[in-house]
């Protein structure tokens, strides 16, 4: 594995970043009562949503651009190191059960590979070349989106991923927690959620990590809403892979249609357990194959399929 040479000015770089700032007023935190530390930490966490709120126009613009690419068959790829990488993998892994996305439609890349999810892989975050290799292994196209995630906004792996993706014509988003970051500058859509100094100096798994989780939730969830993966606020593309999700599927059909239990069971049986198809079959009074055809013609958008069925 190749890595970028050590930068002698890295320490001075870190000293200019708000996420790395030392807070002298908290220097005696270890002597405080546990409840007081918890209150202090909770107060810090309460500031994160406001920091995200300040960047909502940029987040919305990124979502619309991502949705446009994904509607053409593109993929959403997160790339980051450490906590940022883990959060991307987490968000990607939750899309198939929540939105019935295809395997590989939403991908999380973490510097150092899957083992870095549970153990630190030394030096991986410093390699832009590693990011390029990870993206090349995916066969990136111009319809794909790469979201580089880094609290500092200077992580070579995240910046390398964005630069390589942009050179290939893919859409790029840079999510950082410092103003004036190299990552946001490298991306077509730069999102800088400035969360400020951490309770524990430089521990960006705290406020910065929370901010990243909130933004990634928005990117994937609102993109999926735009792609027709929901009907209102119902998860109509949920994949019923266990008993809890099968029960949720029946409840979603009930909420969407008002149908009784026996009708719901018949509709789900006629549509191979596909919630969206079952709802359409009930609301439009069509059989399973017709529901499937109407949805295919409407690119999976249930509202559009309903309108088509009602002529």
> What structural class do helix, strand and pairing data support?
alpha/beta
Quaternary assembly? single chain
Q: Determine the fraction of residues in helical runs and give it as a percent range.
A: 40-55%
Order of helices and strands: HHHHEHEHEHEHEHHHHHH
Radius of gyration: 22 Å
Give the CA-CA distance, first to last residue.
Answer: 59 Å
Mean pLDDT: 93
Sheet with the most strands: spatial strand order:
2-1-3-4-5
What fraction strand? 5-15%
How many DSSP-defined strands?
5
Low-confidence stretches: 1-6
**Largest sheet descriptor:** 5 strands, parallel
Helix count from the secondary structure assignment: 14
So what's the overall shape? globular
Question: Would you write up a description of this structure?
Answer:
The chain is 51% helix and 8% strand. The chain has 14 helices and five strands. A five-stranded parallel β-sheet has the order 2-1-3-4-5, sandwiched between helices. Strand 4 (171-176), helix 8 and strand 5 form a beta-alpha-beta unit. Mean pLDDT is 93; it is low at 1-6.
């Amino acid at each position: 594995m190749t890595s970028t040479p050590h930068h002698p000015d890295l320490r001075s770089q870190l000293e200019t970043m708000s996420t790395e700032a030392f807070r002298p007023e908290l220097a005696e935190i270890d002597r405080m009562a546990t409840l007081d530390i918890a209150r202090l930490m909770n107060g810090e966490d309460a500031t994160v949503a406001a920091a995200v709120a300040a960047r909502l126009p940029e987040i919305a613009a990124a979502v619309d651009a991502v949705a446009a690419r994904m509607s053409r068959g593109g993929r959403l790829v997160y790339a980051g190191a450490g906590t940022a990488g883990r959060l991307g993998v987490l968000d990607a892994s939750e899309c198939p059960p929540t939105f019935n996305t295809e395997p590989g439609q939403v991908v999380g890349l973490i510097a150092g590979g899957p083992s870095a999810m549970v153990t630190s892989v030394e030096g991986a975050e410093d390699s832009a070349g590693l990011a390029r290799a990870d993206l090349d292994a995916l066969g990136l196209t111009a319809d794909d989106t790469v979201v580089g995630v880094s609290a500092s906004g200077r992580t070579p792996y995240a910046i390398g991923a964005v630069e390589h993706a942009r050179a290939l014509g893919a859409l790029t988003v840079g999510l950082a927690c410092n103003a004036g970051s190299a990552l946001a500058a490298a991306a077509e859509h730069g999102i800088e959620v400035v969360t400020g100094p951490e309770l524990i100096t430089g521990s960006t798994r705290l406020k910065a990590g929370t901010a990243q989780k909130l933004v990634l939730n928005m990117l994937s969830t609102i993109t999926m809403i735009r792609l027709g993966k929901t009907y209102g606020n119902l998860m109509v593309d949920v994949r019923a892979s266990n008993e809890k999700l099968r029960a949720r599927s029946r409840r979603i059909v009930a909420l969407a249609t008002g149908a009784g239990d026996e009708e719901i069971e018949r509709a789900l049986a006629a549509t191979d357990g596909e919630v969206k198809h079952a709802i359409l079959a009930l609301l439009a009074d069509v059989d399973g194959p017709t529901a499937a055809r109407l949805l295919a013609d409407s690119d999976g958008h249930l509202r559009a399929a309903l309108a088509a069925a009602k002529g």
